[in-house]
Give the backbone structure.
Amino acid sequence: MRKKIIAGNWKMNKTLEEGKILTSEVVNMAKDELRDDVQLVLCTPFIHLSNLQTMLADSTVALGAQNCSNHASGAYTGETSAAMLQSIGVDYVILGHSERREYFGETDFLLAEKVDIALENGLIPIFCCGEPLEIRERDGQQAYVQQQIEESLFHLSDEKFGKIVIAYEPIWAIGTGKTASSDQAQEMHAAIRKQITEKYGEEIANNTSILYGGSMKPANAEELLSCMDVDGGLIGGASLKSRDFVDIAKSY
Ligand code: PEP
């Protein structure tokens, strides 16, 4: 059975002290309040990963990065490699977030390289896809998302694809307070699962976790997470408050 995952994307927020407080609150609440079949992941700024890894070592909460280089090593000033992340105990890495696509020019083909190198280093990619508003307005969202998935993921072997987590994040819903309706989310998630079935077969498709992201909060989480093909959430703003983040996970 596919995993239920609630991943927090802190983006470029929190000093180290603030991050430690948030982490210890999440760990304690998760221990007391959460079912053990919901995997929490904290995707923090690179600079905090090492410190927070020590805090998470004995907990059930996993650690994620928000990006990695497409290169293995070398003269790439300012970059962080997948091997470095693996060496400090990072479990997951967000790849292809719409902010990285938009502000840092990440393309589907570059992301295919990042996916490869993340998998080679034992990291689990949380691969983000999703359409901008103008594409949704002309009902082109399914073709748009299918192309992102095909170009970045469909070169993978069955075994490697089986390790991927997908996050569907309509860009018009990220950080805007506008959430996709549960019907819109379910429709897209079912389409993604169908696309995976056609390429990799039913077993792999049924085992792939497909998360929804875009203004998810405690007030709308239950409705979104009850959709048959929504296997969790990638949470931005609401992951910066421990109570909201854990309450979203409790909506299951
Ligand atoms: C995100 O950045 O991945 C995200 C879903 O943000 P928010 O929850 O703030 O919309």
